[in-house]
Amino acid sequence: MYRLVIQAPELATQALKQLARLSGAQSIEAIDQQAFKLHAAEIDNLEAVADFCESNQLDFAFIPEDLSVRDIGLVVMDMDSTLITIECIDEIADMIGIKAQVAAITAAAMRGELDFNASLTQRVALLAGLDESALERVFTERLQLMPGAEKMLAGFHAAGAQTLLISGGFTFFTDKLKTQLGLTRTIANVLEIENGKLTGRIVGDIVNAERKRAELIAMRDELGLRHEQVVAMGDGANDLLMLNAAGFGVACHAKPKVQAEAPYKINYVGLDGVLNYFK
């Protein structure tokens, strides 16, 4: 038995009633003004529900009726354009006037059109010679959390879940976010810095799609969790392996390839929409 979670900035009563009919749901219950759950919904009608929601710009998810937020033990997140609104490397590049060049490579890599390792190596090389103070400027002047991020994290943390922020970005930013948000663990790439300047190289192995998947599985097993107790969120092609390794892999305002292949997706509400799945 499933509940159908429907979310959008504005939800018309008529749309909810139509979705109840399409899904065979027995009752409608409000989570908040932007989210409702339709109880005893039939997942057999997934395609009709998906078509209606796409046409009406609604986010939806079929969630097992007996699952609650306290059943979730691990929440895994990408950083750039998922937990935060920016791509840090693009903003770093802007400090030396090459944002457009770097952003084009970033976008292609996130769409899955370029090899992630090669594209990151190429982008970081373009930053050689930049003063490390540029990293602090990006953090203080440009980095913002995605809407709903703090509410989402507070809800999962309060229910006892551990959190892993794993990024193809850089430890300079994940370390600060770990402290700011009380995250359990963070993993990212290390920018090499010599004499206060970026060398254009990364120290150690690159955090790519395979590494993201492996770290999710390792932390899940370390915590003794089942597959369905893990939530993962991401937006780029390098997140897909991670999303598919989680019980609930959510494409958050994601690239088309990710939206097409991820088990769940959120396009119209904030990250707290993921928490609403389990309320």
UniProtKB/TrEMBL annotation:
Record bears the keyword Lipid metabolism: no
Top-level taxonomic group: Bacteria
An annotated GO BP: L-serine biosynthetic process
Sequence ranges assigned to domain DUF4072 in this UniProt record: 4-41
GO cellular component terms attached to this protein's record: cytoplasm
GO molecular function, one term: L-phosphoserine phosphatase activity
Alphabetized Gene3D superfamilies for the sequence: 3.30.70.2020, HAD superfamily/HAD-like (3.40.50.1000), Phosphoserine phosphatase, domain 2 (1.10.150.210)
Transmembrane segments: none
Known catalytic reactions: O-phospho-D-serine + H2O = D-serine + phosphate; O-phospho-L-serine + H2O = L-serine + phosphate
One Pfam family linked to the record: DUF4072
Primary enzyme class: hydrolase
Enzyme Commission identifier(s): 3.1.3.3
InterPro entries recorded: DUF4072 (IPR025138), HAD-like_SerB (IPR050582), HAD-like_sf (IPR036412), HAD_sf (IPR023214), PSP (IPR004469)
Biological or metabolic pathway of the protein: Amino-acid biosynthesis; L-serine biosynthesis; L-serine from 3-phospho-D-glycerate: step 3/3
Family: Belongs to the HAD-like hydrolase superfamily. SerB family.
Record-given protein name: Phosphoserine phosphatase
Native organism: Deefgea piscis
